[in-house]
Amino acid sequence: MENWAEIRRLHRSEGVAIKEIARRLGIARNTVRAALASDRPPQYERAKTGSVVDAYEPAIRSLLLNAPRMSAPEIASRINWPHSMSPLKKRLTTLRPQYVGLDPSDRTEYEAGDIAQCDLWFPDYKIPVGPGQEEILPVLAMTLGFSKMTAAVMIPTRKGGDILAGMWNLIRGWGKAPRQLVWDREAAIGGRGKPTVEAASFAGTLGVSITLAPAVDPEFKGGIERRNKYFETSFLPGRTFTSPQDFNTQFAHWLETTANVRRMRVIRARPIDLFQQDLAAMVDLPPIAPMIGLTHRVRLGRDYYVRIDSNDYSVDPRAIGRFVDIRATADQVIVTCDGQVVADHTRSWARELTITDPEHREIAKALRHDLAERRKASRATRTHADGHVVAIRALPEYDALFGVDFDPRPDSGAGSTAEGTR
């Protein structure tokens, strides 16, 4: 390389003859001529010696033609491969795309207000949810495509009602809704390739659409996937949490003061700087809130409790035998009967608990007392077939009526007669 550069300098800059250059540098004149004829510096290239895979390549191509995704061990078995797997795998990385096909991933440009990517993140940390109980709980995260603004909240379960309640909580915090909500094949949102009835109802109320990612395509919503990784490495380490509410408080503060004010290379700005543009193009919220939370309808039994996510909640016993409607959000469990609230509890995120309202217990006690009094009163009288009340007389009155004396004393003749009668 040094000789090539010096030859060209001497000849082009100083006008030294080829013969003189050869003499000064101690090289052949043909070498000088070759250096002057070449516009590029010399490069060393090792002669190709071939590979142990070359002889097997026709057989490998034949297998890939019929089964492009055949595994390397299976290919090695079928071609009787005698060497280590390393050279075979290396060759397969170049041959397989010719038969499987290439799937390039484009960089997507998002318009303001157009899209929000949604996902569930499961922090590797057990959150205290009750006495002696700890759970790994899901966190719903949503990132706007244009500004990369992120909002997130921990939710009780990954059931559809709880996910939708979390989405409404975050969207309401923004004040507007993005035109598209992008999800993967989360079972409660669109596990079968189309939005569930609850998810479609939620989107329809907001006037937006739910877009489901193609199967096995994590790059479709890579933005939120990268944010989840960022949460794992930057928010979670070194923190402790006393409850789900404590987690949400700390996480919201970190998003506001760190994640959303950090300059991002992909947008060349901070999310907070572009958020107003996103917000201006988003959809206004509807006047009526969408249906959210866990809901179902049951007929209240004698055991005046209803079950939500493994926990039992008491209901006003006066609704026994009637249908009651149950709605549970992350914070509340409300039970109604014919439009009237018959139970209002704070929702517990613990499991297998029985939660009783003392007022319901007192009402049940009063109802049992009233029932006992009615039964006692019904035993005091009887009703004839024609409807009039028949008094129930004491047995001694009938003894006196028939002149029977059951006195067991020995000096009583009547008593002996009575014994004989018995």
UniProtKB/TrEMBL annotation:
Signal peptide bounds: none
Question: Which InterPro entries is this protein grouped with?
Answer: HTH_IS21_transposase_type, Integrase_cat-core, IstA-like_C, RNaseH-like_sf, RNaseH_sf
| UniProt GO MF annotations | DNA binding
Q: Cite the Integrase catalytic domain residue spans from the record.
A: 100-279
- Alphabetically list the UniProt keywords: DNA recombination, DNA-binding, Transposition
Q: Can you supply a Gene Ontology BP term from the record?
A: DNA recombination
Q: Where is the HTH IS21-type domain?
A: 3-64
Sequence similarity: Belongs to the transposase IS21/IS408/IS1162 family.
Protein known as? Transposase
